[in-house]
Amino acid sequence: MMTTLTAPATPDTAAAHSGVRLRLNAVLDRRGTVDGAWWPRSRDAAAELPSLISAVDRRLGRAVLRVGLHHDAWEHIPRRMTARGRPVRVGWFRSADPHLVTLTIEGKAPIVVLVIPPGTAHAPAVAALTLAAAGTVGVRPADILHPARPVENLPGRDSSAV
């Protein structure tokens, strides 16, 4: 069973969003490589993370306490941010997989979310969202992303036309 979260924008997001593009495995049993996928609209961590945190909080009914991400994969990474009226710590690492974000949840095991690059075309991004949420035992993050290449990386495509 898969849950798709399309949460409305919240006042604490810096960017205008029509919703969070996030799918989580309904079981969250930590047997898969990832627990779901997220397709942010930009690489601006300060703008994108509050809505992700809010959506995961609502889905789990528990608070996200900390976010871990790869330093070089994001811009404007704050050390702390406010989401849903409370502070959330943000840690960045260079040894982590740049395609993953880890969310430490109050009273639960951490959740690992695959990040689909913001410039990815719609069909491959939806395919990656679906696969990541369907259960990923033995599947590497790169294998989930393979069909979800950013539009600007596709041969013969002008990314400015999107």
Total number of distinct structural domains = 1
Measured by DSSP, the beta-strand proportion falls in 25-35%
Shape: globular
Helix content range of the residues, please? 10-25%
Distance from first to last alpha carbon: 32 Å
Helical segment tally? 3
Largest sheet: 8 strands, mixed
What's the rounded overall pLDDT mean? 81
Radius of gyration: 15 Å
Summarize the helix and strand pattern as letters.
EEEHEEEEEHH
Low-confidence spans: 1-18, 151-162
Describe the structure.
It is built from 3 helices and 8 strands. Helices cover about 20% and strands about 25% of the residues. Mean pLDDT is about 80; it is low at about 1-20 and about 150-160. It is globular and about 35 Å long. An 8-stranded mixed sheet has the order 1-2-3-8-7-4-6-5. It has one domain. The protein has about 160 residues and is α+β, with helices and mostly antiparallel strands. The longest helix is centred in the first third of the chain and has 16 residues, at about 45-60. The termini are far apart.
Quick summary of this structure?
With 162 residues, this protein is an alpha+beta fold. It is 20% helix and 25% strand.
